[in-house]
Every structure is written in structure tokens, then in C-alpha cells.
Specification:
Number of helices: 19
Shape: elongated
Distance between the termini: 27 Å
Radius of gyration: 46 Å
Helix content: 55-70%
Largest sheet: 6 strands, antiparallel
Number of strands: 15
Structural class: alpha/beta
Strand order of the largest sheet: 2-1-4-5-6-7
Number of domains: 4
Strand content: 15-25%
């Protein structure tokens, strides 16, 4: 429950603080005094969107903070799941900067608005005029039925099955699209693959062929040059090797005259060894080089095929051609096995659809089982609220499976005898709507186990004994839940355990909304004013005393 609410720099509120009790709290004040503004601030704590235009002082930060006692509501798992520190006194805070930036905190840990909304729905139920409009929506009506029927386990089971069905359905559609695409490309892919495969290309082959082509194209010149080089080295009379052999004798003779000559001789010996190796290698290369026109033509033709395929596919190397062939092979393989995979997924889709239908029917049956009980309970409460002839019926029709189930719910209502129940939004007046909504809230209070309920002028359009009956029912709710009620009726306002008064302070340059907890004397005066106006008569005071003492 809410133990403390602090609002700073919001709309007409400069600074406001209240500490509601655990039971029934009343808030009164003239129209426009700031009661709805307070609800707007509470809405921010529950995750509503913020607006920098709502700042009282546009140069300062707006801070709204609520302290909630949550020790009896089993929320430890939620805090653990969201990786938040659990404290029995939970502090929720919203901050709005002058720039419009909004931040949310739970126990001083920054959180996303989605987290705040989830926790807010657990901690508070706020009745407002917007919710009255929502009552006509099928989705909202279904949520009421679900809460009354206590189908959380069935809904979870259905949700798991529904998402499994949607996932499988999505996969089947994707495979069907792939199949269609493959069928369009199959022949072309197969042709390209066969064309590339017939080449029997190996990685690195292109570079090797290009090197061979270079040799074959210049074979005559290479053989001639190599032969001449060998002749210069090996000629018996003028060859370099003969001259070096003569020089070798002199180097061997000189080495006995010192270490320098010895080193030079070693270097010369190394030179002769390397030169002999070069001579031998060159001789082998010269012998192997042949002028082979047939082989040259074969190399040229193979390179030409490689170049043509590279140009065709827009690649630059044999490696890229091989990668393309591999990709085409994967496509062909996948296409060949697509039918089988699609068939398997279609079988799985049928199975998940059957399971979805079974869980949907189970959920629907549990919902339908409480239709009569829900209607009877609401009708009984409406009778207590002066609508003895009210009728509530639930119209249900089966729809294709969606995220909520297979049920479309429409709550029908008739306030008068002999009038056929019609959809709520079409038949209820303001006062009838208020009573109907209150009856629903009364029934749902325990079903939804909400710590705090806020009623914003839910007594609109009613008065007299009906108003007294409504507040008695509020008192019953307040034995198990914290109730905060904004009211314009003295009969209702007089029954609160705490009474807060919202008013406008015009003493400074700017109008400020303020709130104060009324003491017994102030409360008597406020109730009397609510009965007869700004200057209450003696009779009004007597009536106010009577209302407060009953």
C-alpha cells in the first residue's frame, strides 16, 4: 500500500505531501483545485508518459516519489527477476528534467518504464474517467473475466502454445517463400553449378597456369639465353669457371701469409660452391625447357575458360570461383531437401495448431464457467446500489486463435425492467455507469489482490441513500485494501478514516495547489460546506455532524 506520496514542481503543485492510512482515505476540494493533477502525478509513478510542459517551474526538475509497503504481497520474485534490490518499503520515483528527459527509479535503481508499468499494475488500481470509457472495450472486459475466473495458469499455458504455433507458422511461410524462389532459380543454379564443376578447378591453379604460360610463350628465348650463360661459364678456353679455377690456386697460396688472406680464401671457396650450384640448376632448367606448342595451347585454353567464368560472375580469382561453386552447391542441396523440410514443418504446424486449439478450449471453458456467477454477483451489488432491475449478461463468440485466446467477450447491460441488455457503451447513463463500474471494482478487489485502489469521482451521478450504500461498500473493501477516494459528495467524504482537502493558494504571484490533512474541526466545516455551500447554515453543521458520527 501507499504510505507516502511526495510531489514537487508538477503542474500547479510546488510541493505536496500526503501519508494515506491503510484503510479508507477521502480527498475533497473544489473543481479545478488540483485533485486530477494529483492523479496525473500518481500516473507517472505507474509508468505513464511524462511531459516537460507539466513543470510548475520550467527551470527546475520535477520529482514524484511514492513509498509503498509491499512486505505482504510476495513480490520478492519480481524484484529478483528484474535484478532489483528488494525492500519492504519500496520507493518508486520519477524525475522530469526541464529538457523533457524522464527517468524512473525503483529503490534508487534506474529502470525502464515497462518495468514501472508492470510493478504499478501490481501495486495500484486507479479508476478514472478514461477507465469508464475503457469498460466498453472487449479487451478490457476480457481482462475482467480472466481476473474473476482466475485463469492465470491457463493463460500462461495458452500463451506458450500460441507463440509456439506462431513461430512454426512463420517458419512454414518462410520455407514456402524459399521453395517458390528456389523453383524460379533451380534450373539456372543447376546450370551454373554444372558449368563450374566441369572445370574441375583447384585453388591456386590459376597462378600456376599463368606462370606456365609465361614460360611456354618464351621457351625459345629462355633456352637460348640459358645456353649462352652456360657457355660463358663452362667454355673450356674462355669460360668463367676455368678462370676461377686458376684464381683458386693463387688464393690457396696467399692464405699462408696471414689470417686476412685465409678469410678471403674461405669466402672465395664459398663463392665457388654457390656458383657450381647455380650452374647445375641452370643446366637442369635448360634441359627441361621445351618448345611445346600443344601444351602451350592447352594452357591458354584453360586460362581462357577461367577468365570467362570470372568475368561472367564478376569475380577476380579462382578462389572466388570455388566459393561461388560451393554456394551454388549449397543452394541446390537445400532446394533438393526443401520439400522434405517443408513437409516436416507442415506436420509440426498441424500438431501445434491442435495443441493450441486444446489449450484455447480449456481456457475458454474456464472463462465461460464463471459467466453466470459474474453476472449474478454484479446484479446483486447493483440491486444494493438502487438498481434492482439491472441485468448483466455476457455474450461470447468464438474467434480465430489470437494472443488472448479464442473468445470475444461483450458485457451486456440493462438498467431497467423490460429492456433487453445491450453493449455497455450504448445504454448506461453517467450515474448507472458509475454504479456499474463500482460494482465491478468491488467484485474484482479481492480477485486481483491489489494493495491500493483509487476511485476518482466514481460517485458521479448518484446521491442520497445510494451514495451511503456505495461508501459502506468502500468501507468493506478498505478492511482488506487501501482505498483512496476523490469525491464531491458529503455522504461519501464523511466516512473516510483520513480526510485530505485540496485547495488553491492565490497568495503569491502564481496559483499553487496545496493539500492538507483536516483535523476534526476542519473536517466538520468542509463537510458542512459540501452540503450547503461556502457559508454553511446551522442545519448544514448538524447534518455534517450526523454524517460524521454515523
Amino acid at each position: 500500500m501507499l504510505t507516502n506520496l511526495s510531489i514537487t514542481n508538477y503542474a500547479l503543485i510546488e510541493k505536496l505531501e500526503m501519508e494515506p492510512c491503510a484503510g479508507l482515505n477521502m480527498i475533497t476540494g473544489e473543481t479545478g483545485a488540483g485533485k486530477s493533477i494529483m492523479l496525473g502525478a500518481v500516473g507517472l509513478l505507474l509508468g505513464n508518459r511524462a511531459d516537460s510542459k507539466a513543470l510548475f517551474d520550467e527551470q527546475k526538475k520535477c520529482i514524484i516519489e511514492g513509498v509503498f509497503n509491499i512486505q505482504n504481497y510476495g513480490l520478492e520474485r519480481f524484484f529478483e527477476k528484474e535484478e532489483l534490490d528488494y525492500e519492504s518499503a519500496c520507493i518508486i520515483r520519477r524525475e522530469i528534467s526541464p529538457s523533457g528527459k524522464s527517468r524512473a527509479f525503483i529503490n534508487d535503481t534506474p529502470v525502464r518504464l515497462e518495468n514501472l508499468k508492470i510493478l504499478g499494475k501490481i501495486l495500484m488500481d486507479v479508476h478514472s474517467q478514461n477507465e469508464t470509457l475503457m469498460l466498453g472495450a472487449s479487451s478490457y472486459q476480457l481482462s475482467l473475466i480472466d481476473a474473476f475466473a482466475k485463469v492465470s495458469k491457463e493463460k500462461e499455458a495458452y500463451s506458450i502454445q500460441y507463440h509456439a504455433y506462431i513461430k512454426t507458422q512463420r517458419k512454414v511461410r518462410l520455407l514456402e517463400q524459399e521453395k517458390q524462389q528456389y523453383q524460379q532459380e533451380a534450373d539456372y543454379n543447376q546450370f551454373q553449378l554444372e558449368e563450374l564443376s566441369s572445370l574441375n578447378l583447384e585453388e591456386g591453379e590459376q597462378a600456376s597456369l599463368e606462370a606456365k604460360e609465361e614460360l611456354l610463350n618464351h621457351a625459345e628465348e629462355i633456352k637460348s639465353r640459358a645456353s649462352q650463360a652456360l657457355d660463358h661459364l663452362e667454355n673450356e678456353e674462355l669460360g668463367a669457371m676455368q678462370q676461377l679455377a686458376a684464381a683458386k690456386q693463387h688464393f690457396q697460396y696467399l692464405q699462408k701469409f696471414g689470417k686476412n688472406f685465409e678469410d678471403l680464401n674461405q669466402r672465395f671457396e664459398s663463392l665457388l660452391i654457390e656458383l657450381n650450384d647455380i650452374l647445375e640448376s641452370l643446366s637442369l632448367e635448360e634441359q627441361e625447357i621445351e618448345v611445346d606448342f600443344e601444351k602451350s595451347e592447352w594452357v591458354r585454353e584453360r586460362l581462357s575458360k577461367i577468365y570467362q567464368l570470372q568475368k561472367k560472375h564478376g569475380v577476380q580469382s579462382d578462389k572466388e570461383l570455388l566459393e561461388l561453386a560451393s554456394a551454388l552447391a549449397d543452394k541446390v542441396f537445400k532446394g533438393d531437401h526443401l520439400e522434405e523440410e517443408l513437409a516436416n514443418q507442415q506436420i509440426l504446424l498441424k500438431e501445434t495448431k491442435e495443441k493450441l486449439s486444446a489449450t484455447g478450449q480449456k481456457l475458454s471453458k474456464k472463462r465461460q464457467a464463471i459467466f453466470n456467477g459474474f453476472s449474478r454477483e454484479i446484479q446483486s451489488l447493483l440491486a444494493k446500489l438502487g438498481m434492482e432491475n439491472a441485468r448483466v449478461e455476457i455474450l461470447r463468440k468464438e474467434v480465430p486463435a489470437n494472443e488472448s485466446g479464442i473468445d470475444d467477450i461483450d458485457i451486456l447491460f440493462s438498467a431497467n425492467k423490460g429492456i433487453q441488455p445491450q453493449p455497455i457503451g450504448q445504454v448506461a447513463s453517467g450515474g448507472e455507469f458509475s454504479r456499474l463500474m463500482f460494482a465491478i471494482k468491488y467484485v474484482m478487489a479481492d480477485k486481483m489482490a491489489l494493495p491500493t485502489l483509487i476511485f476518482d469521482e466514481i460517485d458521479t451521478g448518484i446521491s442520497g441513500e445510494i451514495a451511503l450504500q456505495m461508501v459502506r461498500m468502500m468501507q468493506e473493501i478498505a478492511t482488506k485494501h487501501q482505498v483512496i477516494c476523490i469525491s464531491h459528495l458529503p455522504q461519501v467524504a464523511a466516512k473516510g478514516e483520513k480526510h485530505y482537502f485540496v485547495y488553491k493558494d492565490n497568495s503569491s504571484k502564481k496559483t499553487i495547489s496545496k493539500i492538507k490533512l483536516l483535523n476534526p474541526e476542519e473536517r466538520l466545516l468542509e463537510i458542512a460546506k459540501m452540503i450547503s455551500g461556502e457559508n454553511p447554515s446551522t442545519t448544514a453543521f448538524e447534518n455534517a455532524k450526523e454524517l460524521l458520527t454515523k
